[in-house]
Structure formats: C-alpha cells, structure tokens
Write a structure and sequence with these properties.
Layout: E1 4-9, H1 15-24, E2 28-30, H2 33-44, H3 54-71, E3 80-83, H4 86-97, H5 101-105, E4 114-118, H6 135-151, E5 155-158, H7 164-177
Parallel strand pairs: 1-3, 1-4, 2-3, 4-5
Helix pairs in contact: 1-7, 2-3, 3-4, 4-6
Organism: Bowmanella yangjiangensis
InterPro entries: NadR/Ttd14_AAA_dom, P-loop_NTPase
Protein name: AAA family ATPase
Length: about 180
Amino acid sequence: MNHFVIISGCSGGGKSTLLAELQRRGHAVVEEPGRRVVQQELRTGGRALPWLDLVGFLRRLIAMAQDDHAKAPRDSKHWVFFDRSLIDAASALQTLTNEPALARLGQACDYNPQVFLAPPWPEIYVQDTERRHGLDAAVGEFEQLQRVYPLLGYTVSLLPKVSVAERADFVLSTLASN
C-alpha cells in the first residue's frame, strides 16, 4: 500500500493546520513547496514568485515537489502526508503554458489513490506576505484541482469544515477504510 497521501485544495482552506495535527499524531508531513519557494525567493531577492514570474515559480515548485517525493520516508509504518503535490504544480503549469506537464510529470511520482481536498472556506481565508492572491483565485485553483485529480484516477474526498481534530479523524478513518 502506498503511504504517500496528498492533502491539497483551496489556498487558505486549513490544510497546514490539519497537517500540523497529523504530524502531532505521529505521521510524517512534507511541507508545501509553494510557501518554501516564496520564502526562499523573498530571502534571496529572487524573481520566481507567483506575482512576478509565475512560470518560473511553477518550475521551481515542480523541482521541489519531485525532490520532496524522492526524499520522503518510504519505510514508515505511518502515513506520509504531502501538503500539495507535484500534480498541483504540473496542472497549473499545463493550464498556463499548454505544455503537457501532467502527462510528463503526473506519473513520475506515485501517491495513494485517496486524495483529500480542502474546499474554499471564506471564514478562515487570509492573505499574507506569501499568499497575496485573493479568495477568487484560490477558488479557481480549487476547482481546477477538483477536476484534475479524478481525471488522473484519484479518489477525491472533500475535507469537512469542522474542527482540526475532527478533520484529522476524518482523514485517518477514510484511509483506514480503504
């Protein structure tokens, strides 16, 4: 069984909070590549930022997501949760440039067939120095991912808008029942 589980969906939908709870419960977590790329670029004065060079940003995301997948613990008896995935970045790049990024990269990394998507949650959405896009852009991103993952053969479960503990229970019980 593949223990690499994707948690993706709408920006500002509570993914990072959920992942922190899953990590607290003993599971490995791979942090979101997008935030890490933005932090690196801001720190070094780079231009591969989504508001300056979206294609460059997405290419950095793809490279980081591939590296994250290659370095993730494979011998874990616990789940390894990814905050977003290579598929997210490849899908965005393909939409933006018409490059066949999904066909080329979508099979490069194997993940558990069960994917969890955080739906838009306007009540908790906030912008910050690293997340400068608005809720409308985040909703568009979510809708794209909601279409892409099933097309690639993944089973998608929407995360309920409940407490973080209840969300973590939902994820773990869904995985246990598959």
